[in-house]
Design goal:
Layout (H helix, E strand, L loop, with lengths): L1 H10 L16 E7 L17 H9 L1 E7 L5 H10 L9 H11 L8 H7 L3 E6 L8 E2 L5 E5 L7 E3 L8 H5 L17 E2 L9 H17 L5 E7 L6 E2 L2 H4 L26 H4 L12 H32 L5 E7 L4 E2 L5 E2 L5 H4 L3 E4 L10 E6 L3 H9 L13 H5 L9 E5 L2 E5 L3 E6 L4 E5 L15 H15 L5
Parallel strand pairs: 1-8, 1-10, 2-14, 3-6, 3-8, 7-9
Antiparallel strand pairs: 2-13, 4-5, 10-13, 11-12, 15-16, 16-17, 17-18
Bound molecules: calcium ion.
The site of calcium ion (CA) has 6 residues, from loops.
């Protein structure tokens, strides 16, 4: 009966509106998380990156030009995606939450997957969704007694294949190479072979199996697939590097280290790999090589996304599934002299966000609204017709999904240990512990290269108040 109702709903065009709300016909959710992906893709207007599958998704949905994450690091950013709440700036944020949940269950709100699970969904994660791929603690990240997100998933999976365990998979290179000493592991690699000679290949195969199983069930599903590349080290099958071997990339904007106090850092995560003694900040040929390998990893990740979307279509579940593609933060490829994330600059905080579902209004039209990762949880509840949790701190983006010109009246917040930032439609303000402020005007060509805080004390005060109203007393 549920299937028949579902069919009727589909025939009338995804409930004849922009969502399905009948209790038995809740739409499925497919959330694809891509690690360290810059919003530098075909659908984001660049012609030098090949991302046909993500571009195709964007053509069927809504692309957010100005989506910002809450933290420029995997674990803390994923915390906000998966809980709908501001958290700490630590990669350990979800494990800390798990400990708190154990000590005092009533003090912790349900996670996004737990909320969907409580409302009749089968919830599954495959790959890197929470900070640890597969969502377990322990020395090799495979201890069943240490879930990163208790009560959230019916299944949380990471087939580590030749990489032995999730910790090995996380930083794996071709054919099961596991990171032991980082300075001995190559930062760039492109071995000949099929997709599964690198870690994502094996996890995606499992995602496809799970998708088949979930699509055959009578229950709605909430499937989250975590794609690892383009996370370091930059290893992908050689066929993905080939199109970039002679590629010309545009000149890197503002490549110099900022002169004043900022959240600049020495790119430790990148520099600690084996770089054969080369430094992209002083070696233009090496910088181009790094960009080529990053681009290869993006195309490899895009191919994995393509497999999942093709399988969704093959099962027929695409007719009743909300798809969301999310990047956990951006990545500097030399801007401000940084090779990595972990800053509070635009390059670290802006990331891809695309939402698509059958019957979406104005498919393929992007929006310039400033939105946050935090908005995902309320948006998905709204679209799926689930009760709206009162504890989430974002807003539903449904108005923008109905009309790309709609105004959700937003600004975006982010933080790392030593500083906080707010991004409005026109400015970014960064406030350091101790009170030092950076203020940047995005309506000028200088953008985030010219700190104008001392010229605009009133705006700094106003934005500090906004930061405090959103984050509370932790803001100085
Ligand atoms: Ca990441």
């Amino acid at each position: 009966m549920a299937r028949l109702l579902c069919l009727l709903v589909l025939l009338t065009g995804f409930a004849g509106s922009d969502l399905v709300s009948a209790e038995k016909d809740k739409p499925n959710v497919l959330l694809i998380c891509v690690d360290d992906l810059r919003p530098e893709l075909g659908c984001y207007g660049v012609d030098y990156i090949q991302s046909p599958h993500i571009d195709d998704l964007a053509a069927r949905g809504r692309l957010f030009e100005r989506h910002f994450v809450q933290a420029p690091t995997c674990g803390a950013s994923r915390f906000t995606l998966l809980t709908g709440r501001y958290g700490s700036g630590s990669n350990n944020a979800l494990f800390s939450r798990a400990s708190q949940l154990k000590a005092d269950p009533k003090s912790i709100h349900p996670s996004m997957p737990a909320w969907f699970r409580q409302h009749g969904y089968t919830t599954v994660s495959v790959g890197k969704v929470s900070h640890h791929p597969g969502g377990r603690g322990g020395s090799d990240w495979n201890d069943d007694s240490k879930p990163e997100m208790p009560d959230s998933w019916d299944r949380h999976l990471l087939p580590a294949g030749k990489w032995q365990h999730p910790r090995g998979w996380m930083h794996g290179l071709a054919h099961g190479e596991i990171r032991k000493k980082t300075n001995m592991m190559d930062v760039l690699q492109a071995e000949e072979g099929p997709d599964n000679i690198y870690p994502d290949g094996v996890a995606i195969d499992e995602s496809l199996r799970q998708l088949e199983k979930l699509a055959a069930s009578d229950k709605p599903f909430f499937l989250t697939v975590g794609v690892l590349r383009p996370h370091l080290p930059f290893g992908a099958p050689a066929k993905y590097l080939k199109p970039y071997l002679d590629a010309e990339f545009p000149k890197t904007p503002h490549p110099n280290k900022p002169s004043g106090k900022t959240t600049w850092h020495g790119s430790g995560e990148f520099m600690k790999y084996n770089r054969w003694g080369r430094n992209p900040n002083s070696d233009a040929e090496f910088a181009t090589k790094v960009r080529r390998h990053y681009a290869a990893c993006v195309s490899y990740a895009d191919a994995q996304v393509g497999k999942v979307l093709a399988k969704l279509k093959e099962t027929g579940a695409d007719k009743n599934t909300i798809i969301i593609l999310w990047g956990d933060h951006g990545w500097h490829l030399g801007e401000h002299g940084v090779w990595g994330k972990h800053t509070l600059f635009e390059e670290s905080l802006r990331s891809p966000l695309i939402i698509a579902y059958p019957g979406i209004a104005s498919p393929g039209k992007s929006t310039d609204e400033v939105v946050e990762t935090l908005d995902t949880f309320p948006t998905l509840c709204d679209l799926a017709g689930l009760p709206q949790p009162k504890f989430t701190q974002g807003v539903s983006l449904r108005p923008v999904l109905k009309d790309p010109r709609a105004d959700v009246g937003h600004s975006a917040i982010a933080y790392k240990g030593s500083a906080f930032t707010i991004r409005t439609d026109t400015h970014r303000m960064i406030l350091h512990k101790g009170g030092y402020a950076e203020l940047y005007d995005h309506t000028t060509p200088e953008g985030e290269t010219k700190n104008i805080a001392t010229d605009h004390p009133d705006l700094v005060t106003q934005l500090t108040k906004q930061l405090r109203s959103r984050l509370g007393k932790r803001v100085p």
